[in-house]
Structures are given as C-alpha cells and as structure tokens.
Design a protein that fits this description.
490 residues; mainly alpha
Length: 490
Amino acid sequence: MLRMLLNKLNKISPCNVFNQKIKEYIEYYGDDYNKICSKYHYLLKIFILLLIAITILGMFLLRFLIFLDIPIGLIAYTYPLVYTWSRREEYKKTVNLEAPFITIIVYINSIVDKSLLYTFKELSEVKELKIPRIEYTFLNKMIEYMGFSYIKALEKRANLHRGDLLGKLYDNYLAALNLGITIKDRLRDVLKDVMYELKESYKTYIDKSAEIAEIQFALLLLLPIVLLGFAFTFKTSITELLLPLLFIPPLIFVISTIQPGVDYNIKHNKYIYSLIIIPIAIFIPVQIAFRLIIIFSVILFVSFFIYQQIQLANELEKSLPLLLKEIAEYLRLGYTVQNAIPRIKINSSKVNKVLSEILRQSNEISTPSKLFNMSMKVLFIISKSGSSSVALEELANAINEIVYAKQSLIRQLRLYDAMIILTPIMLWLAFGTLNKIVSSTLPAIDIIAAYSVGSVILFSKLSRFTLLYFPAILLLVVVLLILSFLPPVF
C-alpha cells in the first residue's frame, strides 16, 4: 500500500511531469538533471515545513497568512521548472552580451582558416568570457564521446541557440561551410546583424519597462492608498496593510528576466554583511525615528560602495571607443598594445589608473565593467593575431554601438526616478487626509518608509540595473526627513 502511494506521488512529481521541458532547458545551458531533482526533494521538505508554519500562524494569529499557502505551494511544485527556465534565460542574456566579442574573434581566426571549434577552445581559456568554455565543452563532448561529426555537432548547437545571437553565428558559419563561400565575408555581415539585434533588445526592454512601471505604480502606490482607506474604516492591522510588499520579490524576478545582459561586475566585500543589522533594527524596542535612522544608515553605507563601482564601470565604458581608436592608430605606426596604452591619456584619472593596473597584470583583467574586461581581453587577443587594425575597427564600432544603446536606455528610463519622490509624498498626503476624518494609531512613517524603500528598490532595478542605487536612496532619505518634520497638511 505504501509502495503504491509512493509510486503515485512519484508520477505527479514535477521532475516527472515537467521532465521533457526541464531536460530541454538543461541541454541549452548545461546542468545535471539528477542533481536538480535531488536538490528539489531536499527543498521540498523545507517548503512543507514552511506551509505548515504559515497555516498554524494563519489559524491562530493572522488569518490572511492562510492565503499565502497557495502561491507558496505553487512555487514549491513548479520549482524545478522555474529554476531551469531562469537559468536558461540567464545563460541567454550572457550569450547575447558576449556574442559580439566571440564573433569578432571567429572572424579574425577565419582569415587564417581556424575553425569555430578551435576558436571556442582558444577562448575557453579566457576567464572574462564564459560562453566559449561552455560551448566548447558541449561540442567536444558530442564529437569525442557521442559520435557526432563536426558539422552535426554544430547543427545541434545551432538548433538549441535558435533565438539568441550565438544562433546567428552558428547558422551563418554552417551556411558558409555547406555552400562553400568565404566564411570571412559571411561573418562580417553576422557582426552587423548581431549589433543590430543587440540594439533592438534594448529598445524592446524600454517598451516592456513602461508596462512594468505601470504595474509597480499600481501595487506600491494606488493599492496601498486603497488599503489605507480600508484600514481606517475597518480598523485592520498594519500587517494586512503591508501585504502588497510581498509582490516585490516576484517583480524583481520578472525585471531580471526581461532585462538585457547586465555587465556590472560588482564585488560584494565585507561591507555587505552590515545588512544583517536591518532585520535586528526592525524588531528592537526603540523609537520609530531611531529605528529608521539605523536602517537607512546601513542601506546608504552599502549602496555607496556599490555606487562607486557602478560609476567606475560607466566611466570605463564611455572611454572604450576612444581608447580603442587611439590604440588602433598606434598599432598602425608599429607599436604593440603594451607600448601604446601608456601613451594614451584619457580625461579620467580613474580610467588611467585602471589602464596602468592592466599593463602590470594583463593576464587577469578585473574591473566593475564586464564590457570593459571583455573588450580589453579581446584587444590583447587581436594584437597577437596579426590583423590588428581591421579587427580593432570592428571592435571599436561594436563597442560604440553597445555604449550608445545603454546610454540611450538609461536616458529614456530616467523618468521613473520621479516615482521615488512621488510614493512617500502621496502616501503622506493619504495618511494626513484619512487621519483628519478618522483618528488612527497606525504608525504612518513606518508604513510610508516600507513602501518607499520597496519603490526605490524596484525602480532602481528597472532603470539602473541594480537594487541599491545610492542617489535614489539618498533622495528618498531626504524626502522622508522633510515629511517627518512637516505638520499634517489637513
């Protein structure tokens, strides 16, 4: 009887129900199916304990918590599918970010008749590029251990990459091999197509971000105001009033999924551990004002270090097109890359300092910008190929297109910064109006601060590609301080 029950439960297990789809995702980015399922079975126990705890709390303390059983149960059941799907989407974004650099090196190597497999093998040793190492592993495994021919292995990967920018490289490379035409000429057209598609991905994100901004506006401003009205009328608790904040993690997940490949390489040093103070500060029995000062001080401290790295990354990216053109000119005069870089002076002391560090240790390039890291590494590879001037022009043009697309994206999303100011002001006005009609003991500044922080996190992620954007948080702190000292308007 027990065995029959276990067999039935095994049949409805998500690893069996979504078996085909999970394996399809894994085949694209590379993973171990058995490890994912065994990890899921371990996590399932945690999910069950969480559901039991929430149900008990809902029955005896907070009734609305029972409604959380449905979304948590849904997450628990679909976890293997959602996990592998998100890994696939993450891999796809990395593919699209690295595709221009891979295409340039494939183009250079095609001049001296080096194959695509050889290029992937060569680039697999480059730490800054992740995709060539994975693709070479797949291709080599299919050829060496699964009996695929070179062409069949390429066709298999081309089919899996249908819909991303590396798929264009595979398709055109195969077309050149099958038709017997010059691969070099075909790949130059591929590079143009890759850059066009990359720019289009930024434009598509701008359109989608407008729709997400409307959802965020409704969830973190309109819905709280409606709930506030119910709270004053029916004397509901503060916990029920903060219910919309539960939508923040799913929204962050959605934004992360649809965003183009983010190229910030933020190093989270020891200062990140100071965030542990926040949950402690929430529950310590002190005055609200003092509690908020502790929380925002920690957030500002952490976000400041992150912001410094983002600023350096942006400076490095802006300097890249000019830097590459200057190096190309020196290479035409017979200089090497190592000799050319010290002669170039960029109008930024930070960038010049980074360039000096690169000269000292060119084997490992580590800056907050993945785009800069990949560009410099590819630059050193190009300099060894003997076709420096032509390839550098292609690289400089590609980088210029990427930098322009990113700057255009940030400019168009800058309007969302107004939501950072709008959220606390609108909630403060709503509290003031309702307090005039019906007196309440609800902690207004706590609720306003919670929704304002949620708004900052979401809009920073949407428009600045980071959860903690220092200027946005600093602006919020200033607005909240002003509101805390102002008397009720009504």
